[in-house]
Amino acid sequence: MNNLKNFLKENPFIKCSLYVILGAGVVKTGYEFGYFITNFTL
Known about the structure:
The chain is built from two helices and no strands. By secondary structure, it is mainly alpha-helical. The N and C termini lie far apart (46 Å).
């Protein structure tokens, strides 16, 4: 775990891309979940 922290400190680009991938996944999941809830309730 400590090695990973040092690795991310030395590679800010990889850190940024990880955050982008995580963010995109969260947004996609939330969007699909909201879409499902909307269809289910209406």
